[in-house]
C-alpha cells in the first residue's frame, strides 16, 4: 500500500512538472512567432494619395526634408512602410494605420 501511494505521488509530481514546462515552451514559441510574423508581413505598393491622412501627417512631421521613394501598405491594412531618401541615404519607416510611428531601418 505504501509503495502504491508513493508511486501515485511521484506520478502526480511528474505530470505537474511536464505541464509547467509545456506552458513555458508555448509562451516562448508564441513570443518568437509574433516577432517573426511581424517581420514577414507582406506589403503592396500604393500611391501617395492612398495613404491614410493620419499616417501621412505623422510621416511628414517626422521626416521633413525627405523625399518619398515608395509607399506600401501591409496586406492586412494594419501598417504602412515608406522608403524615404535624403542626401543619398535611403531609410524604411514604418507607421501603424493610426499614424503612430513603429520603427525605422536602413533600406
Average residue pLDDT: 75
How much helix, percentage-wise, in residues?
Answer: 40-55%
Q: Strand-and-helix sequence, N→C?
A: HEHEEEE
Structural class, from helix and strand content? alpha+beta
Tally of DSSP β-strands = 5
Report the biggest beta sheet as strand number plus sense, adding barrel if it closes.
Answer: 5 strands, antiparallel
Rg, Å, rounded: 24 Å
| Range of strand content | 25-35%
Strand line-up across the major sheet: 1-2-3-4-5
Q: What would you call the quaternary organization?
A: single chain
Give the number of helices. 2
The 3D shape can be described as globular
Distance between the termini: 71 Å
Uncertain regions spanning at least 5 consecutive residues: 4-38
Signal peptide: 1-22
Protein name: DUF2874 domain containing protein
Keywords: Signal
Task: Tell me about this structure.
This protein is of the alpha+beta class and 107 residues long. It has a domain of 39 residues. Helices cover 45% and strands 32% of the residues. Strand 2 and strand 3 form a beta hairpin. The longest helix has 38 residues. About 33% of the residues have low confidence.
Please name the defining characteristics of this protein:
107 residues, 5 strands, 45% helix, single chain, globular, alpha+beta
Amino acid at each position: 500500500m505504501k509503495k502504491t501511494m508513493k508511486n501515485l505521488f511521484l506520478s502526480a509530481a511528474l505530470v505537474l512538472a511536464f505541464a509547467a514546462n509545456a506552458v513555458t515552451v508555448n509562451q516562448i514559441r508564441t513570443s518568437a512567432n509574433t516577432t517573426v510574423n511581424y517581420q514577414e508581413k507582406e506589403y503592396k505598393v500604393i500611391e501617395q494619395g492612398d495613404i491614410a491622412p493620419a499616417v501621412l501627417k505623422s510621416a511628414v512631421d517626422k521626416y521633413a526634408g525627405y523625399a518619398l521613394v515608395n509607399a506600401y501598405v501591409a496586406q492586412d491594412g494594419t501598417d504602412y512602410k515608406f522608403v524615404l531618401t535624403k542626401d543619398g541615404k535611403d531609410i524604411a519607416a514604418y507607421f501603424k494605420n493610426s499614424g503612430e510611428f513603429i520603427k525605422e531601418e536602413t533600406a
